[in-house]
Amino acid sequence: MSRSLFDKIWDYHTVKKLENKIDVLYIDRHYIHEVTSPQAFLELKKRNLTIFRPKKIIGTVDHNVPTINQHLPISDFLSRKQINTLTKNCKNFGIKLYELGNPYNGIVHVIGPELGHTIPGMTIVCGDSHTSTHGAFGCIAFGIGTSQVSMVMASQCLLLSKPKQMRIKINGDLRKGVSPKDVILYIISKLGVDAGIGYFIEYSGSTIEKMTMEGRMTICNMSIEMGAKGGLIAPDEVTFNYVKNSKNFLNHDLKSQSKLIKYWKYLKTDEEKIFDKEYSLIAEDIEPMITYGTNPGTAIKITESIPFENVDNKSLDYMGFRKGESLIGKMIDYIFIGSCTNSRIEDLRLAAIAIKGKKKSSNIKRAMVVPGSNQVLKKAKEEGLDKIFKEAGFEFRQPGCSACLAMNEDKIPTGKYCVSTSNRNFEGRQGPGSRTLLASPLTASIIAIEGKIVDINQYIYEKIYNID
After folding, report:
1. Helices 146-155 & 38-46, crossing angle to 10 degrees?
2. What are the chain's domains?
3. Tens-digit pLDDT profile for residues 266-296
4. What pTM value is reported for the model?
């Protein structure tokens, strides 16, 4: 029987099949952070349970951390309490924690892959919806609720029903200046925010194969915005080369490394496999994208106008837009380059290309660049990217989730427009009453320089931005 990449990983990790199509699935890696773990630890203590395999759990602080002066005591009471609680819990239960000040600290979905805690063929969970990011490595990775967090802690397993499977093929060469963020926004705009409900998505095709691991992580990261349980991509030489340079992989002896790579090469979908649903898209149809509404599906090519059909009036009222309106020329107040979607070194390099030697517009009240980890921050400084941002008037901050969800001080004021490289543009996501437009790091950086939404295509070709 032909099997998909998903089938092979799922079947390998199925401990037992129960009634009503429920499987006991073994979990290889469990990531935790300060927001969704406290209740799970309390549940363990309440029931006098221990953590079954603490070495399988990796902790970090990211959601509530400040992104400036991280060496100082945290001023916000709730943030300080959550971080202190996670620190104590990890110490008491023997869990590895990348705390503030640790050279490897950062956003959970950034540090896991860069340190090699995420490797192909794994089952991975975290109390965070964008755990799907790790699917870029050929993993079954998905977010879980607090009760499931405690279940994994106690048993290293979950009770799950196997989801349906969808494949999205993208073939062709992307246009100049079109990034993976534009690709996933295009996919969601075409298929809809509910297209993936009940499915796990496999992305394939020549376009995906040509992407870097950073790009693939961006694609898988936003699978959840289609309603999918997660997304994954078959591992290949691009994957292997990324993982082989990671800190954790290098700790294996050569024999173990060879054995792992041999297994990884087996992880691909059989040619005869028939998916429950399948879509094919052409890369050349994709252009720089931007959202106009309050969900990621409300994305249009930056040169297009807001459609008249199938548009939520409430969403437009919140954003202060109208049907048929072009966004070109719309003045912007804030820029945010960061989040687990677009805060890796490749994203910062792309933004720096458009910013180098220029100044942010005086119309932009604040432009924040927030690296996804201390390793990204270190690399950015080595390459001089921090100087490029600072000289242009941008704030180059310390790692954290930051203005993606505004759980710390990095908030967008009521009624103000922010072009953001994050993954969600929900009402109030970046602060009460804030208005978010999702875009790529390149688009966000050019808009920061101009102070308004512009035709990115024109800038790429006519303003000599030298974008490969």
Report:
1. 50
2. 5-277 (3.30.499.10), 289-462 (3.30.499.10)
3. 999 999 999 999 999 999 999 999 999 999 9
4. 0.96
